[in-house]
User: Fold this.
Amino acid sequence: MPAGPDSRDGGSQSPRKASTIRDVATLAGVSKSTASRALLGQPGVSPENLEKVQQAIRQLDFVPNRIARSLSAPSPAMLGLFLRNSDSPFYGHLAKAFDGEADRRGYEVLSVASGDQTDDANYQSLMVLVGLRTAGIVVATPVVDPLTIRRVAARVPLVLVGQIGQPDNPEVPFVAPDPKDGLVLVDQVLAHGHTSVALTAVPPEQSPTQWVRIEEMQRHLATRGVRHRVVTVQPDTDLSDLVAGLVRDRVTAVLCNNDFVALDVLAAAARLGIAIPGELSVAGFDGLPPFDHEAVGLTTYRVPAAAMAAAAADLVDRLVRGETVDAGGSLLPGELVVGRTTGPAPTS
Assistant:
């Protein structure tokens, strides 16, 4: 059975408490994920922050006292977290919650961001985490090739979070939002009398999990006899032509694949002089700060980022300890956040 977190110091005792990555981050005045990326030589760290981290490492004598011991210990108390990116609210909140859950279980967390790099690069990044003798790895990006997941999972306990598993890797446990969550948003606008709805989405290859939710929403709308369409979009783009075309076609509600796109739709409507929600109701998805703030007033659906992080931490901890976990995964529900951007369908 793999050793648990209690074996992280290899049985050695030191009169001085060993510094941790958290100590380095605190002294440097940066986040723990930034300190981790600096240690791994990953992109996304400014020269100023890199210098702060390096200075903190020297001041704390962190490298010889912590990393060297981790590399020689039979089972270090360190978990790897492989994020899609670190600048989106969802992945930022997930990483923060996972860090806290891991800390309560006696682990340090080493975070690496994929940034939608090629799968060869994903494999190399994951193997860096394996090479650092992480006890387990949580993969929080839906676009890593199943072969890469299988190769890495053969070396170290691995859990997927944020995606609904992989058919090619049924033995790899996963934690994901329930794809039926989108039906709550559908029912919310249907209750307001909307009979023509548009769903926004990014291309399937960019977010396979999102498309499982979109397909559930389409089936629900079809069952209710509601006219609907799916339009593909990219965030941070001018959606004026798209919104004008939807209103011209008498679409009265737009359910967006995430909150960024919802804000882009609202901005386009403002430029066009379209009243929200008088002429067009708009809802987002993710529902995490700051988009759920009442000052924004966005109707959205809050994904359970904290609960997902806790479930993923529990799964990977049990795998590290050699326990058997149930095949398949966990689908966790979120909650509806009703704001000012949805309302009754126009009467004419």
